[in-house]
């Protein structure tokens, strides 16, 4: 079976899962303010971190991939929904590395929505780009540009359209800058 160019090697997925968890965790408070007793996004971030440390394997996380998701219909605050989606994207890195960009893009959207300012989203993307290791940057650079490959989350779906797609594009453009 041919591997999708969006999947990344397991070693690279472990690298980017930690960064994706960092991105999602920065906006987790927006979700927790809306649903203080709901620990599903926090648990998803913890699972992404456990995967990044080698404490869980890909097969185990794929079996659990739908555990702890937060349906958008449960939330009334858009920033909280975006924060929950960031956590869901972070834990999904275990099976498809491109989800790391989804985690970052949704986190930037959560910041934008919470502040009612596009500058907040741009600031979040700047933080994300400066808080990745050289290895994470290299792994993410190997992903195809958003919207050009249909074999994963960077295809023509949610990560390629609207503000989320614009965020992914800005992230991918920022990856070509010299290492921070």
Summarize the structure.
This protein has one domain (10-175).
Overview of this structure, please?
The chain has one domain (10-175). The protein is mainly α. It has helices at 10-34, 40-52, 58-63, 78-92, 99-115, 118-130, 134-141, 162-175. The chain is globular, with a radius of gyration of 15 Å. The protein contains eight helices and no strands. The model has no long low-confidence stretch (mean pLDDT 90).
Question: Which short descriptors sum up this protein?
Answer:
8 helices, 180 residues, mainly alpha
Q: Topology, pairings included?
A:
Elements: H1 10-34, H2 40-52, H3 58-63, H4 78-92, H5 99-115, H6 118-130, H7 134-141, H8 162-175
Helix pairs in contact: 1-2, 1-4, 1-5, 1-7, 2-4, 4-5, 5-6, 5-8, 6-8
Structural class: mainly alpha
Q: Could you tell me the number of beta strands?
A: 0
Which stretches of 5+ consecutive residues score pLDDT under 50?
Answer: none
Mean pLDDT: 90
The major pleated sheet works out as:
none
Helix content: 55-70%
N to C succession of SSEs? HHHHHHHH
The Cα radius of gyration reads 15 Å
Outline type: globular
Report, as a whole number of angstroms, the end-to-end distance. Answer: 37 Å
Strand content: under 5%
Tell me the domain tally: 1
Count of alpha/pi helices: 8
């Amino acid at each position: 079976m041919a591997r999708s160019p969006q999947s990344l090697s397991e070693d690279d997925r472990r690298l980017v899962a930690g960064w994706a968890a960092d991105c999602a965790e920065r906006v987790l408070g927006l979700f927790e303010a809306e649903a203080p007793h709901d620990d599903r996004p926090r648990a998803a971030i913890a699972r992404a971190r456990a995967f990044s440390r080698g404490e869980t394997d890909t097969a185990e996380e794929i079996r659990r991939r739908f555990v702890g998701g937060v349906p958008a219909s449960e939330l009334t605050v858009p920033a909280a929904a975006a924060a929950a989606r960031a956590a869901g994207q972070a834990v999904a890195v275990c099976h498809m590395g491109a989800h790391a960009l989804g985690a970052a893009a949704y986190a930037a959207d959560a910041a934008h929505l919470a502040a009612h300012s596009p500058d907040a989203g741009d600031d979040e993307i700047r933080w994300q780009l400066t808080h990745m290791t050289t290895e994470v940057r290299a792994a993410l650079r190997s992903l195809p540009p958003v919207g050009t490959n249909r074999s994963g989350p960077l295809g023509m779906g949610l990560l390629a359209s609207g503000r989320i797609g614009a965020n992914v594009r800005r992230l991918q453009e920022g990856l070509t800058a010299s290492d921070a």
